């Protein structure tokens, strides 16, 4: 891998990171807070590539100006002078470039959610603030599940709530509403699962995004993967919605 | 101009190597290969996308891409800092900043790691630069182990992830510092200088500092980044292949579970700034086992081993990583049984 090839790889990587972080693509993989750092890192990568090409060009101009060094400089160009240990492993950096620019894989969805246990395990506080105003009250899947499991639904009362998430199918074929939560990046994404009772949607393909409206029910199930509790929601109404900009809940 | 002349006229600093006779215009270089590859990929883009429509492969791709996207800022800024160390900070600074005796330099370097926020991807090239600038390897290695494990961001993250168990923060910081110092001192007793083979880097002694700086950045990002990608490939595979259900069975055996979570940390290769949240979610395991996860993760994992082999040489990595694992698990077990 010579110097120009390295510069091209850096340019591609920097460009891919910049493109992903200026659009909303990066939200499929990392948290929103990383954006300024991604943009800065992408910019440094592009500058490093440009500086490499610039010094390389100057060197070749110098070689032309001083022909007696021509052979040496040409060798530098071909083998990078110290080409014996130039990092061949650097070619692997093309893979994330291809991943971001060509493939742009989706955010973690029902497949990953089915493999992991619901992530309500971490010790939760027991005093929940009152639900937000509005009828139905718009709450996150994590908020609903925490109130249902750790507060036995007390802070939910008889209120009607509205949740947004994607459909996944439970081990027995029952529909779940799920949402992934991120600590840092999609590699550590863990699902929060809520079972759907009442007028539950049927026949929807997994990963379809829906908005469900309903009320608390004491019904619950046990996650087959990690033995944690999966609370249920009695659905009164549901509709398909567009995929949200940020598919994860913080 | 002077820098260019200097390099062009200086005798080759490395031992003479058989240089391929240059055939002007006749050889296909890596840029040409790259160009053809990219054109092919753009042309067959829809086929490529169709080939990975399987949910397992898609998840694999998502994990791989997200590990790299997450690590890129840390890698780039870590490399930039290491290039500053390698190019702009004079050797005499380190001689003054660190105690002369290596056994004393180890704890000082471990504590210096505490103030540097970052994750493990950045600290590998920094440690390489420190050794290059004459810092004793034992101290540089102690820094390598402590910087990603005990810094403000990581400790705050741990406190947030374990709201009921604030003692986890102290246990993690204490155990990780002990591991870093123990490994530094172990290196003084048992380590051999010839295990570390830093790649020959003539461009660092370049006349022009800025030219050397950018050359170091370019080289380290491509080099360490390549090994990071290799580690991310492995981590994504583990993530998709190992079902969480297996962990459940391990959790019931206390001694085994400590080793198992240590191994899991190695395999998952999660960034040290995120691992506390994952550890918190492994609630079926004892606090001690989860401490092992937090102590081992930032010091040994697949992507780190891959990067260490690249920066320090393979002979170093095959000795250093397993030893760190054993020390990490033992220290975590001791601290955990005492404190948690």
Secondary-structure element pattern of chain A, one letter each: HHHHHEHEEEEEE
How many helices of chain B does DSSP assign?
Answer: 17
Low-confidence segments of chain A, given as residue ranges, are 69-85
Q: What percent strand of chain A?
A: 15-25%
What share of residues of chain A is helical? 25-40%
- What does the largest sheet of chain B look like? none
Profile the largest sheet of chain A: 5 strands, mixed, barrel
Element-by-element helix/strand order of chain B:
HHHHHHHHHHHHHHHHH
* Biggest interface and residues each: A-B, 90 and 93 residues
Mean pLDDT of chain A: 87
Describe this structure in words.
The complex is a heterodimer of chains A (250) and B (340). Chain A is α/β, with parallel strands linked by helices and 250 residues long. Chain A has 6 helices and 7 strands, in the order H-H-H-H-H-E-H-E-E-E-E-E-E. In chain A, helix 1 runs antiparallel to helix 2 and helix 2 runs antiparallel to helix 3. The two termini of chain A are 41 Å apart. Residues 69-85 of chain A have low confidence and may be disordered. Chain B has 340 residues and is an all-alpha fold. Chain B has one domain (55-339). Chain B is built from 17 helices and no strands. Chain B has helices spanning 2-9, 30-43, 45-51, 55-87, 91-97, 102-114, 120-132, 137-149, 152-161, 167-190, 209-241, 244-251, 254-268, 275-281, 287-296, 302-312, 314-339. In chain B, helix 4 (55-87) runs parallel beside helix 7 (120-132), helix 6 runs antiparallel to helix 10 and helix 9 packs across helix 10 (167-190). At the A-B interface, helix 1, helix 2, helix 3, helix 4 and helix 5 of A face helix 1, helix 2, helix 3, helix 4 and helix 11 of B.
Tags for this entry?
heterodimer; A: 250 residues; alpha/beta; OB fold (Dihydrolipoamide Acetyltransferase, E2P); 2 domains; 5-stranded mixed beta barrel; 6 helices; B: 340 residues; mainly alpha; 17 helices; disordered N terminus
């Amino acid at each position: 891998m010579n110097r120009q090839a390295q510069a091209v790889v850096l340019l591609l990587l920097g460009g891919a990171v910049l493109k992903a972080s200026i659009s909303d693509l990066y939200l499929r993989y990392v948290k929103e807070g990383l954006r300024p750092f991604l943009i800065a890192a992408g910019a440094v990568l592009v500058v490093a590539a440009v500086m490499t090409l610039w010094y390389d060009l100057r060197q070749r101009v110098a070689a032309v100006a001083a022909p007696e060094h021509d052979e040496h400089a040409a060798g530098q160009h071909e083998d990078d002078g110290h080409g014996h240990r130039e990092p061949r492993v650097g070619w692997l950096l093309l893979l994330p470039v291809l991943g971001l620019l060509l493939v742009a894989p989706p955010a973690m969805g029902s497949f990953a959610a089915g493999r992991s246990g619901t992530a309500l395990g971490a010790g939760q506080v027991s005093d929940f603030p009152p639900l937000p105003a509005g009828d139905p009250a718009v709450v996150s899947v994590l908020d609903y599940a925490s109130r249902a499991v750790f507060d036995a639904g007390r802070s939910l009362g008889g209120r009607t709530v509205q949740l947004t998430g994607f459909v996944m199918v439970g081990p027995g074929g029952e529909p779940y509403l799920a949402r992934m939560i991120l600590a840092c990046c999609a590699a550590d994404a863990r699902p929060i699962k809520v079972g759907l009772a009442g007028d539950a949607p049927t026949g929807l393909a997994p990963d379809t995004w829906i908005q469900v409206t309903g009320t608390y029910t004491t019904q619950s199930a046990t996650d087959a993967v990690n033995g944690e509790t999966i609370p249920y929601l009695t659905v009164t109404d549901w509709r398909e919605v567009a995929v949200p900009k940020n598919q994860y809940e913080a | 101009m002077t820098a260019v002349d200097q390099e062009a006229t200086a005798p080759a600093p490395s031992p003479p190597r058989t240089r391929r006779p240059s055939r002007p215009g006749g050889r296909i270089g890596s840029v040409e290969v790259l160009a053809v590859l990219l054109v092919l990929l753009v042309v067959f883009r829809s086929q490529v996308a169709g080939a990975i429509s399987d949910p397992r492969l898609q998840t694999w791709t998502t994990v791989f891409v997200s590990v790299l996207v997450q690590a890129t800022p840390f890698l780039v800024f870590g490399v930039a800092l290491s290039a500053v160390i390698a190019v702009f900070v004079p050797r005499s600074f380190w001689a003054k900043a660190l105690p002369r005796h290596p056994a004393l330099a180890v704890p000082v370097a471990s504590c210096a790691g505490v103030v540097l926020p970052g994750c493990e991807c950045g600290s590998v090239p920094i440690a390489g630069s420190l050794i290059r600038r004459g810092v004793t390897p034992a101290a540089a290695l102690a820094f390598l182990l402590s910087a990603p494990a005990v810094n403000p961001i990581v400790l705050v993250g741990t406190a947030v992830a374990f709201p009921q168990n604030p003692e986890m923060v102290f246990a993690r910081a204490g155990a990780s510092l002990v591991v870093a110092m123990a490994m530094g001192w172990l290196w003084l007793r048992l380590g051999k200088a010839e295990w570390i083979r830093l790649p020959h880097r003539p461009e660092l002694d370049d006349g022009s500092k800025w030219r050397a700086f950018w050359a170091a950045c370019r080289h380290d990002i491509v080099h360490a980044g390549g090994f990071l990608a290799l580690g991310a490939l492995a981590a994504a595979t583990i993530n998709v292949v190992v079902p969480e259900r297996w962990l459940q069975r391990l959790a019931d055996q206390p001694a085994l579970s400590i080793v198992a979570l240590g191994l899991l940390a190695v395999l998952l290769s999660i960034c040290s700034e995120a691992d506390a949240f994952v550890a918190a979610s492994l609630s079926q395991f004892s606090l001690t086992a989860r401490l092992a996860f937090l102590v081992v993760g930032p010091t040994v994992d697949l992507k780190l081993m891959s990067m260490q082999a690249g920066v320090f040489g393979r002979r170093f990595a095959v000795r250093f990583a397993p030893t760190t694992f054993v020390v990490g698990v033992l220290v975590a077990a001791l601290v955990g049984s005492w404190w948690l």
